[in-house]
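Annotated sample (chain length 271).
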Amino acid sequence: MARTPGESYIYDQQWEQERARLAGLAAIFDATTIRHLTAAGVAEGRHCWEVGAGTGSIASWLASAVGPGGRVLATDLDTTFLQGLDTAPVEVRRHDVTVDPIEERAFDLVHVRAVVMHVTDRAQVVKRLARALRPGGVLVIEDAVFGGPSTHLWERVTSPPAASGPLNRVMDAVAGGFRAIGADPEYGYDLPADVWAAGLTDVEAEVTHRLLHGGSPESAFYELSLRQLGGRLIEAGLLTQDDAEAVTAVATDPGAHWLSVGLVSVTGRTP
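Output written by the structure step:
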C-alpha cells in the first residue's frame, strides 16, 4: 500500500459508513475510556480538550461531567460528525494536533484515543499535548495495539476455533497496511515511556481487551473496517479474498466470539 503525499490516516473519512465504523469503535472502548476519565478526576467546572473527537461520544460525556461552568474543546481533522455538538459547553474546532497552534496551560484534562498511532512524530505530539495542561492537569492518552505476536495469543479465545487463523491474518494485514503509510499499530506499548519523557508524573498504564460477539454493535467496527480496507489490502498482496470473507462471516455471526484489539490507556499528571 503505497503512501501518497499528505496521507496520514488509512481510513477514508468521507466513506458513507465511516460514522457507523467509528460508532463501533466507541461501542468497544467508550466504557473503558470513561472509567479512566472518571479516575482522572473529571468534574464540574473543569476545562477539557478531546483530541480526535470522532463521532463525539466522549466529548458528549465530558460535557455532561463538566456541566455549564466547564469547557470541552472537541477537535478533529474532519469535524463533520461533530457539528451537532457545537453548543456550550462544547466548542468544535477543526485542528491538526501535529502542526496547528495549541492552547498552552489551558486544560485540566486532555484526552486522545486512537490518534497518535497514526502520526509520524509521535513523541513530539505527546509533548505538545502535555504542554496544553495546567499545573496538576491530567493527560489520558490511549491507542489500539494489534498485529504481531500478541495478536496470535488471542486465538485460544476465538470461537469457532477455525476462525482464529483468518482473524490473525486479517489483523496482521491491517497492521501491515498501517505500517506502509507510516502509522504504528504497536505504538501503544511505547506510550508510557513517551508520557514520562514529556515531563509528566504519576504515570499509569493499562491494556484492555474486550470479548466481542458477532452481530453486535462492537463487531460492526470489524465488519466495516474490513469492508473499507479489504480490497486495498488484497490488491497490495497483504490479504487473501478467502480470509476477508471468513472474517466478515465471523463478524456477523452471533454465535462467534473473539478478543478485541488491545487498548493501551496511559495517564500522566503535570507536576
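Annotation: The chain has one domain: 18-269.
Annotation: The longest helix spans residues 18-39.
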